[in-house]
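Technical note accompanying the year-one report. For the benefit of new consortium partners, we illustrate the data format agreed upon in the data management plan: each record pairs a sequence with a structure-token string. No post-processing was applied to the example shown here.
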Amino acid sequence: MKIAMIGTGYVGLVSGVCFSDFGHDVVCVDKDAAKLAKLRAGEVPIYEPGLDDLMAKNVAAGRLAFSDDLSQAVDSADAIFIAVGTPTRRGDGHADLTYVMAAAKEIADALTGYAVVVTKSTVPVGTNRLVKQAIATANPDAEFDVASNPEFLREGAAIDDFMRPDRIVVGTETDRAATVLSAIYRPLFLRDFPIMTTDLESAEMIKYAANAFLATKITFINEIAMLCERTGADVKMVSKGMGLDGRIGNKFLHAGPGYGGSCFPKDTKALARMGQDHGTPMQLTEAVIKVNDEIKRRMVDKIFDLCDGSVNAKTIAVLGVTFKPNTDDMRDAPSLTIVPALIGNGAKVRVVDPQGHREGADLLPGVTWMETPYAAAKGADAIVILTEWNEFRALDLTQLAGTMATPVMADLRNIYSTNEAIAAGFKRYVCVGRVPVETGA
């Protein structure tokens, strides 16, 4: 099959590379000349484990190419995927469809034969019908179908998610479009990964409903964590006890500083806005958004309490600023709330992150970037674990505590236990969902 992938952002690039690895001929289209130059030189503009090698392999095999010529890519393509950004629109919470509709117009102008136009971007319910209308209006003679094919990729594990998905969701109106999508995903079907075919609206809604539900699980356990701290319960034990129930499951039940990233914040806001527009308020989702913002601010209070109520003129070492490990994505990361609050109250912040510097350099002005946790902790008044990178899971806590001016820790990912932190020499240790401990020494 011949595939045109419009957009080389996270979703477009990962999907294009993986489709080419299935054996399809894929052209990824983008207007950003600098990004295209990097891609053609074999440089991956995002950090995603394994993506660079897989991209190089398929470029070398002649199945993957990068272009700024949409017309050429669309010509003779069996499927044209729209994988452009749908950021939250300023002021009203709507998903901004500017790039989607612009892509639809360009596709309409370029269509010369039958193709399926597939929306891969996360879009509000009804968008695929708008895309269909836009193409038909711009090119009344065009022969095409539209389909919705939402992505369910976790940053840091995107290739595995694409190659071993829980499910593939395809929303179509015609058997002809369904046949094309089935052929594209045939390598997964042959390995018994489920392909679910729905109508357009259901496919669009599945993406939002799934992300809102996962965001709700995260926010629920974070609220339980707050109550655990007041009652003496241990949220890690509570999470484990809940997760062993097959109806609940243990995923996304890890207390921390709140969710962030490219999907959950914008998709919960878009779902809430859809509910308002249709006279069906998404009250639970609206509460999740509110509580998640409060959780991030509460983490700031934890750090202030750890520092005896003030961070003014104190040096704070922050480990991890990306919204999760194994990505360089800083979008809506808790660090973007927490670190500026520390700096704004007079703290000197040192930051360590394996991949966060490229984006974080502009987003976190005023911090000092350090190479290692030990360098960041030397002479520091507090250390804060904010992202659970593997590099931070087996630190020599004794060495850390021994070099600090004031050995206190805020472990906002519950990586360590109270006992090992205190045994290593920390005078005070706070985490999320467990009673804070100090030695009194």
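Partners are asked to follow this layout when depositing records. DSSP finds 18 helices and 15 strands in the chain.
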